[in-house]
């Protein structure tokens, strides 16, 4: 089984220290969540698994950690200033704000109107009840809303007017809405310092920020989130093949780490919905809402793979000229093209971009790991069957008698001896049944019990989270045994 709904995970996450609502003592912030002791381990393990896969297990990808705040010109030439918009509408009665594209999509589904037929806002909003206050048809006109989060750097600079008469200041800056642009502007730096020939990729993990109109559904849509992005540079003409390669690779990665194929759905994004730079986009959807009756509404985007063509590298380059001979980008000081020695050709590589959210991946892994099992006494227990590589705690060392100093001391010393290489905890705050249940619920793959016998035979009992089977292992062999089983 998987989690029956996101709420089950929200409650487990709060109860067991994975994720807490942020700023709760001040009434919360709606869209922000804090990762607790187990949540931060889980996020780190997801990121580490991805980084290992990208950088250590392959030979063609370099890592990068670029700034969150970049020169504002980056966002001008990437197209974000002009096009990173959501259409929004407000309810005139209660002032609640909604994304117009979502309302339009629901209207299309309900009335079976295909995408190629235009629908007017009056049609979508005319009879629509506000989800917040229930009033009908009292809406503003849909309008554009740029979802980049703006900030100011240093002491406030003088405000000037741009070409279109809009006020701006030299100090204006944005928190990045994607990590990708930091990669594009460093393409030549990385390629030349690492002496790379295409095809090769640059991978980056980091925070991104979007002023989402309607954040919600726990960590699925927040204004601050983390991305794991790969920009894979190929020769034009080899982009379609590389695209398919990364689709298959990501399917393999997610399913190997625990996502069930039946909960994944590949969604080919049609031209009208695609970002302006994309030749093809394929989104991976995950069944985040299994409780919804209509199966088409059960899925939401987990990650996306886009063929960004040569858009970004040429947009940030000083060289390409417009038809009238003027530079497309008069501000850039660099040409981000690539010179191919073998053919003596210079060109802008095409880019295949798999872009995955850390938080959405964490939520999907938690949902598919969730299971319930009934013990001999008829009690139902939650077991989080996380892949061992993702589990926050790998082993729990539990003394069978907490009032026996020799047993407690042996258990604590085993925990300390494992800890440098295996994340382990010691727990004696309950009976053994309770301690097992606690570890099952947080996904700890192994419980190690130290008993009276251990003092004599220098062995411990290792219990498997998923089968509840137990095995007696010599203490001297324990670390090797766990290392081996954790890698399976
Ligand atoms: N560079 C391409 C890009 O950013 P995107 O589809 O806008 O593409 C990629 O974002 C991924 O980032 C999404 O598939 C999702 O996993 C994650 N993501 C985007 N917006 C998010 C949000 N508001 N909250 C949580 N994750 C988000």
Structure write-up:
By secondary structure, this protein is an alpha+beta fold. Helix content is 30%, strand content 26%. The strands form eight sheets. A seven-stranded mixed sheet has the order 3-11-12-18-15-14-13. The chain has a five-stranded mixed sheet with strand order 22-21-23-24-25, with helices on both faces. A three-stranded antiparallel sheet has the order 5-4-6. Helix 2 packs across helix 11. The longest helix is centred in the first third of the chain and has 20 residues. It is globular and about 90 Å long. The chain starts with 5 loop residues before the first helix and ends with a helix. It binds glycyl-adenosine-5'-phosphate (GAP). The site of glycyl-adenosine-5'-phosphate has 19 residues, from strand 12, strand 15, strand 18 and helix 11.
Low-confidence stretches: none
Strand order of the largest sheet: 3-11-12-18-15-14-13
Instruction: Let me know the average pLDDT.
Output: 94
Shape: globular
Major sheet: size, sense and barrel closure? 7 strands, mixed
Query: C-alpha Rg, in Å?
Result: 26 Å
List cofactors, ions and other ligands.
Answer: glycyl-adenosine-5'-phosphate
- Distance from N terminus to C terminus (CA atoms, Å) equals 21 Å
Kindly estimate the percentage of residues that lie in beta strands according to DSSP: 25-35%
Determine the fraction of residues in helical runs and give it as a percent range: 25-40%
Quickly count the helices.
15
Helix and strand composition category:
alpha+beta
Question: What's the count of strands?
Answer: 25
């Amino acid at each position: 089984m998987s989690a029956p709904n996101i709420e089950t995970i929200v409650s487990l996450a709060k109860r067991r220290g994975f994720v807490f609502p942020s700023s709760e003592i001040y009434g919360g912030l709606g869209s922000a969540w804090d990762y607790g002791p187990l949540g931060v381990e889980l996020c780190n393990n997801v990121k580490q698994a991805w980084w290992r896969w990208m950088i250590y297990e392959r030979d063609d990808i370099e890592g990068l950690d670029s700034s969150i705040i970049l020169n504002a010109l980056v966002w001008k030439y990437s197209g974000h200033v002009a096009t990173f918009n959501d259409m929004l509408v407000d309810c005139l009665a209660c002032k609640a704000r909604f994304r117009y594209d979502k309302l339009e999509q629901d209207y299309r589904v309900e009335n079976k109107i295909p995408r190629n037929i235009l629908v007017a806002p009056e049609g979508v909003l005319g009879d629509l009840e506000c989800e917040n206050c229930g009033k009908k048809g009292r809406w503003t006109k849909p309008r554009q809303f740029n979802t980049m989060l703006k900030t100011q750097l240093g002491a406030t600079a003088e405000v000037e007017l741009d070409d279109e008469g809009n006020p701006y200041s030299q100090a204006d800056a944005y928190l990045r809405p994607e990590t990708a642009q930091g990669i594009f502007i460093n393409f030549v730096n990385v390629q030349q310092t690492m002496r790379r020939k295409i095809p090769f990729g640059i991978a980056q993990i980091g925070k991104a920020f979007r002023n989402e109109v309607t954040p919600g559904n726990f960590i699925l849509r927040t204004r601050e989130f983390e991305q794991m992005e790969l920009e894979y540079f190929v020769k034009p003409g080899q982009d379609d093949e590389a695209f398919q390669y990364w689709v298959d690779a990501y399917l393999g990665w997610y399913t190997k780490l625990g996502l069930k194929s039946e909960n994944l759905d590949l969604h080919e994004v049609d031209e009208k919905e695609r970002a302006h730079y994309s030749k093809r986009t394929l989104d991976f959807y995950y069944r985040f809402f299994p409780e919804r009756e209509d199966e088409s509404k059960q899925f939401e985007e987990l990650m996306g793979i886009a063929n960004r063509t040569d858009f970004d590298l040429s947009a940030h380059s000083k060289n390409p000229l417009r038809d009238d001979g003027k530079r497309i980008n008069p501000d850039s000081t660099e040409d981000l093209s690539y010179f191919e020695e073998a053919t003596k050709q210079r060109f802008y590589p095409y880019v295949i971009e798999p872009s995955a959210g850390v938080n959405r991946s964490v939520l999907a892994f938690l949902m598919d790991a969730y299971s319930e099992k009934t013990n001999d006494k008829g009690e139902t227990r939650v077991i989080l069957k996380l892949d061992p590589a993702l589990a926050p705690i790998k082993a729990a060392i539990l003394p069978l008698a907490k009032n026996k100093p020799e047993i407690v001391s042996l258990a604590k010393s085993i925990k300390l001896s494992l800890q440098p290489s295996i994340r382990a905890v010691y727990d004696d705050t309950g009976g053994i049944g309770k301690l097992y249940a606690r570890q099952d619920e947080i996904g700890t793959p192994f419980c190690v019990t130290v008993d009276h016998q251990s003092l004599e035979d220098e062995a411990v009992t290792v219990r498997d989270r998923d089968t509840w089977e137990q095995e007696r292992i010599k203490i001297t062999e324990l670390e090797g045994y766990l290392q081996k089983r954790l890698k399976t």
